[in-house]
Amino acid sequence: MLITFKCRACPDVVMLENLAQYLVGIVGKRLGERGVIAHDELGLAIEKLEAAITFDKQERAEHDGHFHENEEGHEHHEIPPGLAQRAYPFLDMLRAAQKENTDIIWGI
User: Fold this and answer.
1) 35-37 and 2-7 strand pairing
2) How many Å apart are CA 60 and CA 86, to the nearest integer?
3) CB within 10 Å: which end of the chain, N or C, has fewer?
4) How far is Cα 72 from Cα 13, in angstroms, rounded to an integer?
5) Please, which residues have CB within 8 angstroms of residue 98's CB and are 6 or more apart in sequence?
6) Per its UniProt entry, which superkingdom is the organism in (predicted)?
7) N-term to C-term CA, the chain
């Protein structure tokens, strides 16, 4: 199922429900049928998401050496996109909403 986040400060952001649930959870909300991230909650939400992205980047950097690229006997496999790539549109929306002092809503 797709979840559409809306805000007057920028275009809608649409994502799969499992990613939406994960990102909304990081910022301290629950993905219900309807929801809102109020303008006064945006600063903390941005901090939490940026911290999670930083942590993910550190974890990925530590494990980069474990992919055995170009080693004999190991098949090549793609490295999945990190949290920064998956969260960027949502983080951009949070920042735009904060700048315009507006809420982010979903499920309407």
Assistant:
1) unpaired
2) 14
3) N
4) 42
5) 39, 42, 43, 46
6) Bacteria
7) 15
Q: Are 104 and 73 in contact (CB under 8 A)?
A: no
pLDDT number for residue 69 = 53
Distance of alpha carbon 17 from alpha carbon 3, whole angstroms: 6
Res. 76: pLDDT tops 90: no
Look at the pTM and tell me if it is higher than 0.85: no
Q: Which two tokens stand for residue 25?
A: 């959870």
CB count within 10 Å of CB 100 equals 13
At residue 46 the predicted structure's pLDDT band, cuts being 50, 70 and 90, is: very high
Token pair listed for 87 = 């969260």
Q: DSSP class of residue 67?
A: G
Q: Are the beta carbons of 97 and 49 closer than 8 angstroms?
A: no
